[in-house]
Structure formats: structure tokens, C-alpha cells
Write a structure and sequence with these properties.
The complex is a heterodimer. Chain A is mainly α. Chain A has four helices and no strands. The longest helix of chain A has 19 residues. By secondary structure, chain B is an alpha+beta fold. Chain B has a single domain, classed as Gcn5-related N-acetyltransferase (GNAT) (Aminopeptidase, 3-Layer(aba) Sandwich), CATH 3.40.630. In chain B, strand 2 and strand 3 form a beta hairpin. In chain B, helix 1 crosses helix 2 and helix 4 packs antiparallel against helix 6. The longest helix of chain B has 26 residues. Classes of the chains: A mainly alpha, B alpha+beta. Chains A and B meet through helix 2 and helix 3 of A and helix 4, helix 5 and helix 6 of B.
């Protein structure tokens, strides 16, 4: 079954929820499409971002039954970062998995 | 980011980093700034201990390549700590610092292997190093006494070909993502 926008958002939110469970109250990452994942307005450092990426790749691979890599050539070749915010990451997931919006 | 050699003048800032919550999973460091100064001053000449700094010269953390053995072509990566959380937030500081360290190890020193240990409760770093291509090679049981209790040391290792095949592409993708985000945010 292809990944839909709703399922992509659910997977990203679940990864952020997992991250929030390890962080104290002041460092909680909001579950919202506009939440920045990378860049100066982000609450994440690169350790936290990788933790989120690992959770998302695992969930996508479980759903699709094939390995999914978010940091492959597709990510490298994009002009705008797929990790800028939740919205751009969901769009990238849909593109990568051939899903539908 | 730049890596510049750690000097005794860095004792105060690196001591503060070692006392922070982020360093809770690391080995017990120096107990006083003076002890930290002595520790820095007595690093062996074949250790590469660095301060991670922004291009502006602002220090962000520390990282080392120690026990460099050019016969067996191996070394240990360690003392890896992003001390300035605010400075590093939203930028791939840790990725770039580790990339620079691996360039030293694999490109300049022509090493075949980099290894290290991680305290078993340091889940974020363990996950991060696995993602960055390191393989888990074993466990030393009750190897560390950290946070008032024993923890296993997870032994990790990275071979040169794994670095080039897995680690480097992932690092480049994360660095590229960081750069394009920064450009967009200007």
C-alpha cells in the first residue's frame, strides 16, 4: 500500500513523539507541519535529527517492506532541504516512496 | 566548522562542558578547572585533541582521535561532546566535526579502522554512530561506573571501506540538508 500524506504525517509525528519522550518539558518539539527540523529556528541538533530519521526510516521500511533511506542521493540533489520542516519532510517521503498527497 | 588543536587555555570552557548535563554519559572528567588544565597539558603528542569551532571561531564542542597506531593503522575516536547546545542547534555541527575527524583518520593518516566505546545508556549517541556507519563489535560488561551505577561499554568500529560506502554519503546528505536550510532561512 502506498504511503499517503496522512500516513507520512503520522510517521513523522510518531518519530517526534519518541524524541519528546527523551527530552524535558522545555525542549519539547511541537507536532505541527511548520515545525522546523533543521536550521536556526529548529529545536533539534544533529543527534536529535538523526534519531528522528532513524525512526522514520524504520517505520517506512516496516510499512513498505523495503529499505528506505532518507539521506541518499535524492536528499543530496535537492535544492531545498527535505529536513527544513515537517511539511517538507512529508513531501519528500511521498516523493521518495511514490506515495500520493 | 573547524577543528583546532585543544590548548590549555581551553581548560575553563571544556571543564564547563564536561560538567553539563550533555556530558552525563561520558567518563568522569577532571574534577576542577586546574585538573582539566593538567589533563590537556599532558595529552600524548600522538593524540589529536580538538576544539570544534564555528568558522567565526566560536567554540562549540570537542572531539579527539587518540591512540593512533600507524603500524596497525587504527585509532580511537573519543571525547566527542557538543558543549554549546545553543551554538550547535539547527546546524549539522556534530556531523561536520566527525567528518573532519574521519578525513584526518582515513585520508591523511591512511588508517584502516576507527573504533570507540559508548556507555550503554547513551542511547542517542549509540543510535547516531550506528546510523553514521559504525558497527557494533561487542560489549564490555560493567565497564563504566557512570551516574552512580555500572554500565556496559558498547564497542563500535568503522572500517575505511564502510566509511566511504556508508558514512560519507550520509554525512554529505546531512550537511547538504543543513546548508540548503540555512540558505533558505536567510
Amino acid at each position: 500500500m502506498p504511503i499517503t500524506q496522512e500516513s507520512a504525517l503520522r510517521i513523522v509525528y510518531q518519530a517526534l513523539t519518541n524524541l519528546n519522550e527523551e527530552r524535558d518539558g522545555q525542549a519539547q518539539v511541537p507536532l505541527a507541519p511548520e515545525t522546523a527540523l533543521f536550521g536556526k529556528s529548529s529545536l533539534l541538533d544533529s543527534l536529535a535529527l538523526v534519531s528522528v530519521i532513524v525512526d522514520i526510516e524504520t517505520a517506512l521500511s516496516d510499512e513498505l517492506g523495503v529499505p528506505i533511506c532518507l539521506t541518499g542521493e535524492d536528499a543530496l540533489n535537492r535544492e531545498e532541504s527535505p529536513f527544513a520542516d515537517v511539511r517538507s519532510l512529508c513531501a519528500f517521503i511521498l516523493q521518495l516512496t511514490g506515495g500520493r498527497s | 566548522m573547524n577543528l583546532r588543536p585543544l590548548v590549555v587555555e581551553d581548560a575553563a570552557v571544556t571543564f564547563r562542558w564536561r560538567q553539563s548535563a550533555r556530558a552525563r554519559h561520558l567518563n568522569r572528567g577532571a574534577a576542577t578547572p586546574a585538573a582539566q588544565e593538567r589533563w590537556i597539558a599532558t595529552r600524548p603528542s600522538d593524540d589529536f585533541c580538538f576544539v570544534i569551532e564555528l568558522k567565526t571561531g566560536e567554540p562549540a564542542g570537542m572531539i579527539s582521535l587518540i591512540d593512533v597506531d600507524t603500524w596497525h593503522r587504527r585509532a580511537e575516536a573519543g571525547h566527542f561532546l557538543i558543549g554549546e547546545e545553543e551554538t550547535a542547534r539547527g546546524i549539522p555541527a556534530a556531523v561536520e566535526a566527525l567528518k573532519l575527524l574521519y578525513e584526518l583518520a582515513f585520508d591523511r593518516l591512511k588508517l584502516a579502522r576507527v573504533y570507540g566505546t559508548i556507555a550503554s545508556e547513551n542511547v542517542a549517541m549509540h543510535r547516531w554512530q550506528l546510523y553514521m556507519g559504525m558497527k557494533e563489535e561487542g560489549r564490555l560488561r560493567r565497564h563504566y561506573f557512570i551516574g552512580g551505577h555500572f554500565q556496559d561499554a558498547i564497542c563500535m568500529g568503522l572500517l575505511e571501506e564502510e566509511y566511504r560506502r556508508t558514512t560519507l554519503p550520509r554525512m554529505l546528505a546531512l550537511l547538504s540538508a543543513g546548508r540548503s536550510t540555512a540558505v533558505r532561512g536567510q
